[in-house]
């Protein structure tokens, strides 16, 4: 069998909606064939047979789930995973907020069992453990589960399914809190995962879910968050439909700035009788007013995406043509995606700097731009950084004050590409 056929076996087109089962889709945008966003490669003389998969987004006309057009086999995406949870100030502060919210609004107390799906290296669970919870992580990435276990956060190297949930319940008892931070949007078999949550949750237990908010994507046009791992882009109304269909009840929601705009949603058993907060109806009403249930809003989004797809590479090329050296800041999955979608490669972007040691020394998927450590980048800085970790822009601009003072500039891509210099961030 040749390599191309091999890759085809790992992907399938989306037909039925994973939330409501309908199959009436509005096509929004298509980006052609794109390599996997986190598939960093060792530098090589040639990159023949690098897999690429169709990437695009569609919207379900029935429940308004936004979904990617194709699902790549999770065994391919997640068994060995190079995305390590950030230890940035922004995320560290956010994890404290999540723990406090679960304690206050979910009624979590010391000694309670907290199970996290997609727990990565265990940073969030460590915060709960510090506050006295019993914790257990479940993450299919064997490399990351091993790190978490070494650091003292017990972690099962498995996908969370109904079967895994049964095993956990038998060995640890029911969970007072099940947590899924930025993993829920990566799950195709929502029915299987929610059956597991249902089985594991204590009668008064809470399922806390954090997902990127589709409204932020639609408003900020940050289409680089559209890649194969992100299967779903949720509205509150879509999440409400989903949980109700699976015998659960969404009772509270909060809009958060993290990862470019997210929702923290609290879900319980309907029998627990938790009152639904005003925040839930307020957001659902606002979604309706903004006509997010109509085709027109998504057509508008597609127009905005097309504009940035033209303007951003044109801006970078003009900087290069003027003799400026450009590098990428952050080899984020978003960054590898936007470079591929905009057709920017090593001719325009000399390197990308990134703090993740797993990525350093490798090259970006598709574009093969090399990744350098911050130390190497500081020793050989560019004239202009293309901000590829824009969700940390504030923190990064503060950290790079010296670069800016020395005349360095940043290009911020969304919602319209702009150049910032020391003068503009003062
Ligand atoms: P992140 O936005 O967390 O996620 P994704 O890969 O899902 O798009 O990625 C940010 C990347 O930027 C991550 O690889 C770490 C890197 N980074 C830096 O190199 N320097 C920094 O100061 C920060 C905050 C992030
Ligand atoms: Zn649907």
Automatic annotation (TrEMBL):
Keywords: Methyltransferase, Transferase. PANTHER family: BLL5978 PROTEIN, TRANS-ACONITATE 2-METHYLTRANSFERASE-RELATED. Residues 17-78 form the Methyltransferase putative zinc binding domain. GO terms for biological process: methylation. GO terms for molecular function: methyltransferase activity. Residues 257-415 form the C-methyltransferase domain. This is Methyltransferase domain-containing protein. It comes from Streptomyces litmocidini. The keyword Iron-sulfur does not apply.
